[in-house]
Amino acid sequence: MAEQTRHGEDILQEADRVLLAHYTPASVVIDANLEILQVRGQTSPYLELAPGRATLNLLKIARESLRLGLRAALLAARKEHRSVTKEGLHVPARQVKQAFPVRPAHRGTGTGARQHTRRNGCHGGGPRRCQ
Fold it and tell me: Which of 2, 74, 102, 130 could form a disulfide with 97 if both were Cys (CB 3.0 to 4.6 A apart)?
């Protein structure tokens, strides 16, 4: 019976993994130093490992067209302790402009932010392109 329960839990964990990988908007969880702790969804249109020494620093691996806007949103979210959305950032791989919500999440004594990208368009509406 215990083996059946464990097998059932394995199936549920695998189902969760598949659903998160295919149906969750691309997002990352970062720490106070902007180091990526966790990745959800397909982030390749937004993040790319750079040649040279490996890093998981969000701003170092964010696509070039996203870095300045993402940095501004992260700084504003940290300073104002609230969610911030940077509208109209160009995503070359998708040939669209998108909104990038940044949501602070404080845990323990450290500060962190969850950077979340919407695959289907801008914040605050259905699927659409930013102007």
Answer: 130
How is domain 26-116 classified at the architecture level of CATH? Answer: 2-Layer Sandwich (3.30)
Rounded Cα gap, residues 85 and 90, in angstroms:
14
B/e letters for 80-115, b = 16+ CB within 10 Å, e = fewer, are eeebbbbbebebeeeebbbbbbbebeeeeeeebbbb
Q: Over the stretch 113-130, which tens digit does the pLDDT of each residue have? A: 444 444 434 433 333 333
- Lookup result for tokens 């940095």: 71
pTM for the structure as a whole: 0.66
Place of tokens 């979210």: 77
CA distance 114 to 28: 6
Q: Spell out the domain ranges in the chain.
A: 26-116
3-state secondary structure of 41: coil
